[in-house]
Amino acid sequence: YQPPAVFFLFFSLCSDSTLPAPAVTLFPPSSEDLQSRQVTLVCLVQDVSVGFADVRWTVGGSPVTSGVFTGPAEQQPNKKFRMSSYLTTQTSEWSSDKEFSCEVSAAGTSASKKMKKSDCSA
């Protein structure tokens, strides 16, 4: 038995294609947040080719899992997916000018954004 040539063509096209990396935007705490004990950073992930992405946060280069909430993926009009992840931490940690990073992996691609308080000051 010999599989049809279409099978090989389909397999090679699918296995050789590379999906684009997701678009990542990192938003700093709001000015209202800065008046309280805790602040929240928002990582917006868009144009994910599949309905799942692994979102990881680091603070000062160390992985953080406490205070992290990542919402479910939602389909965009372009048929790709978007999701948001939130990191809530002490205001003092943000004020210490540590580097906050949101790293996203999906379907063999990855992207990240980094930010610290001094990046946001005018």
TrEMBL record:
InterPro entries: Ig-like_dom, Ig-like_dom_sf, Ig-like_fold, Ig_C1-set, MHC/Immunoglobulin. Residues 1-20 form the signal peptide. It comes from the Eukaryota. Residues 22-116 form the Ig-like domain. Gene3D superfamilies: Immunoglobulins. SMART domains: IGc1. CDD domains: IgC1_L. Keywords: Disulfide bond, Immunoglobulin domain, Signal. PANTHER family: IG-LIKE DOMAIN-CONTAINING PROTEIN, MHC CLASS II-RELATED. This is Ig-like domain-containing protein.
